[in-house]
Amino acid sequence: MNFAFFGSSLVSAYWNGAATYYRGLTKALAARGHRIAFYEPDAFGRQQHRDIADPAWARVAVYPPTVAEMERRLDEAAATADIMVKCSGVGVLDRELEAAVAARRSPGLSTIFWDVDAPATLAAIGADRGNPLRLQIPRYDAVLTYGGGEAVVRAYAQLGARQCVPIYNALDPETHHPVPARPDFVSTLSFLGNRLPDREARVDDFFFGAAAHLPNAVLRLGGSGWEDKPLPKNVAYAGHVFTRDHNAFNCSAKAVLNVNRESMAATGASPPTRIFEAAGAAACIVSDRWEGIGQFLEPGREILLADSGAVVADLVSALTAADARAIGEAARRHVLAAHTYCHRAAEVEALLDGRGRWRKAG
Question: What is the pTM for the complete model shown?
Answer without folding.
Answer: 0.93
